[in-house]
Write a structure and sequence with these properties.
Layout lengths: L9 E4 L2 E4 L10 H5 L2 E3 L2 E6 L2 E5 L1 H14 L8 H14 L5 E9 L13 E8 L9 H4 L1 E5 L20 H13 L4 E5 L5 E3 L4 E6 L2 E5 L9 H12 L4 E4 L11 E6 L3 E8 L2 E2 L7 H14 L10 E3 L9
Parallel strand pairs: 8-9, 8-15, 12-13
Antiparallel strand pairs: 1-2, 1-7, 3-6, 4-5, 4-6, 5-17, 6-7, 9-10, 11-12, 11-14, 14-15, 15-16
The structure holds 4'-deoxy-4'-aminopyridoxal-5'-phosphate.
4'-deoxy-4'-aminopyridoxal-5'-phosphate binds next to helix 6.
Length: 316
């Protein structure tokens, strides 16, 4: 089977390591029909001390929270998923890449009550370069405000990273690409700024770093949390607040933050340049601090890096 995704050798399938091509599902899988899946997106980086996973424990915690919201109970403890993640990365021989925990409702019944469909849990990893293109981190991206809104609170729980939510993200992303943008900025129900299709957003307005407050329309990104902590420690004032759409044109700087996107400058919004149309100084400082920490070249002051332990020597 050929795949545009760079494949690796092994996938962890409910406690068993299976070859990549053998991790298959039946067409009657509940999640395929109704989006009943939960996932995480985690990056691991090559560091001078070997591969390290960025905030693995926090991602696994969010994974279990998302599962709880949808009453899904993976048949594994968070600790065993963490162990299995390390083992998977080791077995696949990757020093850097992306790790995808996935839980979904399998084959049981096709009614809308998901309870009869058992939960399956998988871990997959593969190499993944720059999400928004090779030069996005340097050059920045062109973003457009989407005509599709994020789900309203009390519709899809946005704090849960559920597969079904991403059908909305796909509409948002496809529209942006069709309009010649690299990425979209989606609004929440009230018409104020929410987030990108798969990343949170920050603005610098009069030297202050602003990000939309968690209002039930966006994911509480772990990179968002990293950015806020790094900025505060640099003495940059940070505020979570309501952000009117038009503030995107008032801002001196705009950037996206997410595991896949890392810290990506936005150089224009709806074809209007942001600031000088290049990555601004605060964006640059935060991007550098984030990537240097992730790559283990700056001190890990927050304990974000979880090193992949070396394999135990085999007893002879
Ligand atoms: N919002 C959405 C919709 C996302 O899919 C992501 C990526 N997981 C984010 C924000 C950023 O979250 P994180 O920093 O935890 O990757």
């Amino acid at each position: 089977m050929t795949s545009p995704i760079p494949t690796t050798e092994w996938i962890w399938n409910d406690g068993v390591f299976v070859p990549w091509d053998e991790a298959r599902v039946h067409v009657m899988t509940h999640a395929l029909h109704y989006g009943s899946s939960i996932f995480e997106g985690i990056r691991f980086y090559e560091t001078p001390e070997g591969p390290a996973v960025m905030r693995l424990t926090d991602h696994v915690k969010r994974f279990y929270t998302s599962c709880r919201i949808y009453k899904m109970a993976p048949a594994h403890t968070p600790e065993s998923l963490i162990e299995a993640s390390f083992e998977l990365i080791r077995r696949n021989g990757l020093s850097e890449g992306y790790l995808r925990p996935l839980a979904f409702r399998g084959v049981g019944a096709l009614g809308l009550n998901p309870a009869p469909s058992p939960v399956q849990t998988l871990l997959i990893c593969w190499p993944w370069g720059q999400y928004l293109g090779a030069e996005a981190l340097e050059r920045g991206v062109d973003a457009g405000v989407s005509s599709w809104f994020r789900p309203a609170p009390n519709t899809h729980p946005s704090l849960a990273k559920a597969g079904g939510n991403y059908i909305n993200s796909q509409l948002i992303k496809m529209e942006a690409l069709a309009n010649g943008f690299d990425e979209a900025i989606a609004l929440g129900v009230g018409g104020t700024v929410s987030e990108g299709s798969g990343q949170n957003i920050f603005l610098v307005v009069e030297g202050e770093l602003l990000t939309p407050a968690l209002d039930g329309t966006m994911l509480a990104g772990i990179t968002r949390d990293c950015v806020m902590r790094l900025a505060r420690d640099m003495g940059i004032p940070v505020r979570e607040c309501i952000i009117p759409r038009e503030m995107l044109h008032q801002a001196e700087e705009v950037f996206f933050a997410g595991t896949a996107s890392e810290v990506t400058p936005v150089r224009s919004v709806d074809r209007v340049p942001v600031g000088e149309g290049v990555a601004g100084p605060i964006t640059r400082r935060i991007q550098r601090a984030y990537l240097d920490t992730a790559r283990g070249v700056a001190p890990d002051r927050y304990g974000w890096l979880e090193r992949v332990p070396r394999a135990e020597p085999v007893a002879v």
